[in-house]
């Protein structure tokens, strides 16, 4: 603070040369000067945000919020958002069960929303953030809309189409390729899915136990098809 005050003192006389009247006011003038030009003004500048609101980390956090909404709705917890020029223009979570639509993956719903916002089927200046590596259907849609970039959280070693099983996003013979960033906030994305399927298995065991006292299997894989996610 000593240095700052020194700076203020150095500026004072120069500022006080503005008029004779001002010079005559003495201390009273300095008080008014204090109010207008106090070095304490530096504290009025808003603090820099702790979170970078333009970072991949932040945007994946928003996709995770969508995934949490899916979980609350009893859906496989996958969330997606679309970002254009630093703004989120679409948010969606997996709604296959709610809509009784196998194509209602988070990414598909988010892409449709984004196209409505942009007013075009081309999303060439957009980035999609999704908590799980896209499946072949969604990756195909991303190529169709000419998406610039795809950022995903956890890999899907059984069905991932962004490099794990196949790479449709950068397929050599297709007419568009997306930039890919994988593994962002991976642990959180994975934990959400693992917790969901663990709860599903417990629920199914309870249901099977109630319906089949002999413990016979229902024949369905625990947690359904998506339970074998990485
Ligand atoms: Zn999909």
Poorly predicted parts: 1-37, 215-228
Q: What percent of residues are in strands?
A: 5-15%
Q: Percent range for helical residues?
A: 40-55%
Alpha-beta content class: alpha/beta
Folded structure, characterized:
- By secondary structure, this protein is α/β, with parallel strands linked by helices.
- A hairpin with a 2-residue loop joins strand 1 and strand 2 (87-93).
- The model is unreliable at 1-37 and 215-228 (pLDDT under 50).
- The longest helix is centred in the last third of the chain and has 26 residues, at 186-211.
- 44% of the residues lie in helices and 13% in strands.
- The protein has 8 helices and 5 strands.
- Strands 2-1-3-4-5 form a 5-stranded mixed beta sheet.
- Helix 4 runs parallel beside helix 8 (186-211).
- It has helices at 2-16, 20-24, 26-37, 56-72, 96-99, 106-118, 136-144, 186-211, and strands at residues 79-84, 87-93, 126-132, 149-154, 179-181.
- It binds zinc ion (ZN).
- The site of zinc ion has 6 residues, from helix 7.
């Amino acid at each position: 603070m000593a240095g700052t005050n020194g700076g203020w003192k150095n500026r004072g006389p120069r500022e006080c040369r503005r008029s004779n009247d001002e010079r005559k006011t003495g201390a009273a003038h300095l008080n008014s000067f204090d109010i207008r030009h106090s070095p304490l003004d530096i504290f009025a500048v808003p603090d820099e945000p702790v979170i970078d609101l333009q970072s991949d980390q932040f945007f994946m956090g928003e996709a995770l919020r969508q995934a949490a909404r899916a979980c609350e709705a009893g859906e496989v917890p996958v969330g997606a958002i679309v970002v254009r020029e630093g703004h989120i223009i679409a948010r969606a979570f997996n709604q296959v069960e709610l809509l009784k639509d196998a194509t209602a993956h988070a990414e598909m719903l988010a892409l449709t929303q984004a196209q409505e916002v942009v007013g075009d089927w081309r999303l060439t200046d957009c980035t999609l953030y999704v908590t799980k590596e896209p499946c072949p259907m969604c990756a195909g849609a991303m190529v169709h809309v000419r998406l610039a970039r795809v950022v995903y959280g956890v890999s899907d070693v059984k069905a991932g189409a962004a490099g794990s099983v196949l790479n449709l996003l950068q397929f050599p013979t297709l007419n568009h390729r997306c930039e890919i960033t994988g593994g962002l906030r991976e642990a959180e994305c994975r934990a959400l899915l693992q917790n969901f399927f663990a709860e599903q298995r417990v629920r199914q065991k309870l249901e099977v136990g109630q319906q089949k006292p002999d413990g016979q299997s229902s024949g369905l894989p625990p947690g359904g098809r998506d339970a074998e996610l990485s």
